[in-house]
Design brief:
Number of domains: 2
Number of helices: 3
Shape: elongated
Number of strands: 18
Helix content: 10-25%
Radius of gyration: 34 Å
Strand content: 35-45%
Oligomer: single chain
Order of helices and strands: HHEEEEEEEEEEEEEEHEEEE
Length: 335
């Protein structure tokens, strides 16, 4: 009786998985591992795609923010143009289809202290009411009626008695000698006739253009250049990578001669040169010209379009890059 019982118990505990059951279990395990691996791979690809595309979006949005910030900080003349430069080489300050030139305000201006109607020729000095806000090498826009001239301060003379009002020399009705400061600009000599309500604005000349990427010449960067010549000035440098297109257009009222306070529909031009030629001989694209109204003075809005592509494909092993574009129109404050 006891031998039979022991034999039955031995057979019961020797039971286990059959070969077929083991193969089925291994197959199920392999399927589960495959599902997990596919899900993980897709998750990593999605993360890679999002990372590459978000980086491009951030590049373009930062670039647009920088341009619009400068546009909103412009001085009396928002857009600047230098057609004599040719507008082809890096550093040429032009407002055209693919580059933008701006006079950015440095938050200081003062009245010109010169007698209205007084003629001046080849002058390297300009009287102002307060020269304390100017330093050597500052760029100053002298807005004299329809004439606008950029000069570089080489020296200043703080002569004004602040307890007395600002008085230009030979001012009608003045009861005493002139009371004013002087800024010297020996690099630029100016000529003309002084107009009433002339001002001197402290500015920075800024331009935006596309240049080849220094690490990959087949791609482009957005570059911010400051200064009047090709050598980079303060705060020059790369704004954003992977920018394919910079497109600028300039909004001018259908009736540019109307008062600033009137609301008008705008027509957008590809460049200041196009605008001047369309508007007729009364206008010029040269801010230093005395033969016409500088067309940049009647620009009321600037539209900026940026487009870029990712430097890497959106999917690992793929060959299709991501593309992103952004447009913004900035209304300029009226002069």
């Amino acid at each position: 009786m006891s031998n039979s019982s022991r034999s039955f118990g031995s057979r019961r505990f020797q039971k286990g998985f059959t070969l077929i059951e083991a193969l089925i279990a291994i197959g199920i395990l392999i399927i589960l591992i495959g599902i997990v691996a596919v899900s993980l791979t897709r998750g990593l690809q999605t993360k890679h795609t999002q990372s590459v595309f978000i980086e491009l979006q951030q590049n373009l949005r930062y670039a647009m923010q920088q341009i619009t910030q400068d546009l909103r900080s412009t001085a009396k003349l928002a857009v600047w143009n230098s057609p004599s430069s040719g507008c082809d080489d890096p550093g040429d300050i032009c407002s055209s289809r693919d580059r933008l030139g701006l006079l950015v305000s440095r938050d200081y201006h003062t009245a010109v202290a010169e007698p209205p109607g007084g003629k001046f020729s080849n002058s390297a000095n300009t009287g102002v009411c307060d020269a304390s806000g100017f330093e050597k090498d500052d760029l100053v826009l002298i807005a004299n009626g329809e004439e606008n001239t950029l000069v570089t301060v080489t020296d200043r003379q703080l002569k004004r008695d602040p307890s007395r009002p600002c008085i230009p020399p030979s001012a009608p009705g003045s009861s005493g000698p002139a009371n004013r400061d002087i800024i010297k600009h020996s690099k630029e000599h100016i000529s003309g006739t002084w107009q009433p309500n002339s001002y001197a604005f402290k500015v920075r000349l800024v331009s935006y253009e596309l240049r080849p990427d220094p690490t990959d010449p087949s791609r482009h960067i957005l570059y911010r250049h400051t200064g009047q010549d090709a050598s980079p000035g303060p705060f020059s440098g790369i704004v954003a990578f992977d920018i394919d297109t910079l497109r600028i257009s300039y909004g001018i009222p259908l009736n540019p001669g109307a008062k600033n306070s009137s609301i008008q529909q705008l027509r957008f031009y590809d460049s200041l040169s196009d605008a001047a030629s369309t508007l007729g001989s009364k206008y010029t694209d040269n801010p230093n010209s005395t033969s016409g109204i500088y067309v940049g003075k009647v620009v009321r809005a600037v539209r900026v379009y940026l487009a870029g592509t990712t430097s890497k494909p959106l999917t690992k092993g793929g060959n299709k890059p991501g593309h992103y574009e952004i447009t913004e129109t900035v209304d300029l404050r009226l002069n």
